[in-house]
Amino acid sequence: MSKEELIRIAHHTIMDADEEKAVQVIEDALEEGLDLIEILQEGFAEGNREVGELFENGQLSLPELIFSTEVMKKVIDLVEAHTGMGKEKVKGKVLIATVDGDVHEIGKGMVASTMKSYGIEVIDIGREVPVETIIEKAEEYGVDIIGTSALLTSTLKEQKKLEDALREMGLRNKYKTMVGGAPCTLRWAKRIGADAYSEDAVEAAKKALELLKK
Asked: Which burial class, exposed, middle or buried, applies to 191 when counting CB atoms under 10 A from its CB (0-12, 13-18, 19+)?
C-alpha cells in the first residue's frame, strides 16, 4: 500500500474513531518501511484537527469527540513505542493546563496529543489549575513553554493573571507562553503579552515547535 493511501486511511481512522483500523495502519506502515512520524503528522494528526473543527462547529457530539481522542492517544503510544518519538526529536518541554475555574479539557487533551505527535514532550497538569500551581509545576519540571487553555470568557482573566504573575516574579523571560480556547484571539494574546496564540491543535503544535527553536 502506498504512503499516500495509508495517510488517507490514517486520517479517516481518527474521524471514525476506529482503533482497530488505526493499529492496522501502523502495522502496514512498519511492514512497508514508511516513516511513522510522517504518517502520524500528515494522517492521524490531520484527522485529529478535523475532528476538533467538527466538534467546534456542532457537527460532532462530545462522546464522538472523546472516542476519537482516545484512538489518537493509542496511536501516539504505539508510534512512541516504535520510534522513541519525543526522546530526542525535540529539545524542549511544554506544560499545558486549563485555567482555574474552567472544567473543560477535551480541547486541551487534543492539543497535548497533537504536540506529542510532533515529537514534543508535554506535561499536562489537568483542568481548573490556579496560576500559582501552573508556575510551581513549570519550575518543577523545567519546561520551556507554558500553554494555557480558557474555554469560558469569564476565565480569560486567568491567562492575563499568569502573565502578570510571571513578570512580578521575574520569570517572564524564562518561559515562552501560549494561549488558546474558544474565546481567545490573537488580539487577546498580544494584549496580555503572550508569545503565541493558536486556533487549533495542529497550529498549536507548529507554534510550539517555532518557539522551541528560538
From this structure: exposed
Phi, psi dihedral angles at 103 (to 5 degrees): -95, -5
CA–CA distance, 107 with 58 (Å, rounded to integer): 14
The answer to whether the beta carbons of residues 155 and 190 sit under 8 Å apart is no
Distances (CA, A) of 8 to 15, 100, 204: 11, 39, 22
DSSP state of 154: G
- How far is it, in rounded angstroms, from Cα 53 to Cα 45? 13
pLDDT in tens, 136-190: 999 999 999 999 999 889 999 999 999 999 999 999 999 999 999 889 999 999 9
**Tens digits of residue pLDDT in 19-76:** 999 999 999 999 999 998 889 889 998 898 888 778 878 898 888 988 998 898 899 8
Can you tell me the distance from the alpha carbon of 98 to that of 91, in angstroms, rounded to the nearest whole number?
A: 24
The answer to whether 134 and 124 are in contact (CB under 8 A) is no
Query: Do residues 35 and 2 touch, judged by C-beta distance below 8 A?
Result: no
Q: In whole angstroms, what is the distance from residue 147 CA to residue 39 CA?
A: 26
